[in-house]
Amino acid sequence: MKNSFDTKGSRPEFPRDEVWTAISRGIQQAEEQVNLKKESLQEKRKSKRKPLVYTAGAAVVAFGILVGSSYISPALANGLSRLPIIGSVFSDSGILGLKQASDKGLTSAIGETQTVNGISVTVDEVLYDQTNITIGFTVESEEELSDDYFGAGMDFTINGEQPRNGFSGGYKENVVSPTVRTGIVEYAVTEEMPEEFELGLVLRGGKGEKWMFSTPIKVISELVRVSVNHKQQAEGIKLNVTELALSPSGIGLSYEASEKGNLDDELGAFYIDFRMTDENGKEITSHSGPVTGKRHKGIMVFNGQNKFDPISEDVKELTITPYLALPTDGGGVEFDENGESRELEFKGDSLQPVEFESFKVKIPQ
Hints:
Layout: E1 7-8, E2 11-12, H1 16-41, H2 52-67, H3 74-81, H4 88-91, H5 96-103, E3 108-116, E4 119-128, E5 132-141, E6 155-158, E7 169-177, E8 180-188, E9 196-204, E10 210-218, E11 224-234, E12 237-247, E13 250-260, E14 272-278, E15 286-287, E16 291-296, E17 299-308, E18 317-324, E19 332-335, E20 341-344, E21 359-362
Antiparallel strand pairs: 1-2, 3-4, 4-5, 5-8, 6-9, 7-8, 9-10, 11-12, 12-13, 13-17, 14-18, 15-17, 16-17, 18-21, 19-20
Helix pairs in contact: 1-2
C-alpha cells in the first residue's frame, strides 16, 4: 500500500481494494500467530480452522485499525503483502477451470497453516471434481529454499488410508519470491474414490520436515455426466470414449484404448489424445490427464481421463477428434512390485500417426 492516500482536489480517494487486501492478509497473519502459539504448547497437535464468527470479528477489528489511519508503515505493508489471501492460488493459476470454480464457491476453503523449522505451509483451498482432487497451497520461509525442496509434492490419504491401487497426478510450483512460493497438486480421480471423505495431506521438506493436514471434502454437486460410448478402430487400436463429465471447473473425458502387445512395447494406444471444438469451431483448451495400463491375454488396455476447460452454457454440441500425441524424445523409469527400478529406453520414434474419425456429442440444455 502507498504511504498516504492519492488525492483529487480536496477530497482523498479511499483505496478500497488495497485496504481489503491488507485486511484479508492481516487476518491470515493473526491466525498464523495463534497457530504458532498452539504448536509451541503441543507440537504434534493439529491446528484447527477458526470458526466463521472469529474471522468476522477479526475483520471488524482490522478494518477499524486500517481505516483509522491514512498512513501504513512500510514494515507493516511489506509484512501484510507477503502473506497469502485464501483463494488466490487457484485464481492466479492461469487455469480457467480452477479460477472459475474458486470464483463460484465450488472449492473448499481451508486456510490452515503449519510452521516447521521456520517454514510456514498454508493449505489454501481444495477442489474435488470429475477428474481431479486439486490442492492449492502457499509456502513462506524465513530463508531461501532450493527449487526441489518439496520433491514431488504432497502425498494423500482417503479416510486415513493410502489409495489401494496407487494414484497418479501432477505437481507444479510458482516462485513468488526467494522465500515465498505457491504450489498446485493434482490427484486423478478413480472409480474407488467415495463422493465424500476425509482427505489427509502430507508434505515433506528437504531436511526431514513434515507438514500434515486433514480436511473433509466432497465432490462438487454442479456435475452433469453424459454417456457417450463411442467406439472405433484404426490401425489395430480399439478406442471407446465412454463418458463426458461437465461442470464449471471443466470437462472430463473418459476413455479406454487397447492394442495387442506387452508392457515393454511402445504402443500407439498409450498416446491417445483428443481435440475438442464447439459448434462454432472454437477449440476447447486441453490439459494433460492420467493414463493407466494393464495387460490382459496379450492385449494392453489403457484407461485415461483428459481434462478440458469449461464451456459456456450456450454450447449445444462438441466435436471430438482422437489422435496420437506422439513424443519426439523421452524414456522413463519402471518400478516392479518390490520397488526396484529400471530405465526404459525411448522407442517412440518407431510409431506412426493414426487417423481416427471425428464424432459429435450433444450437450444437455
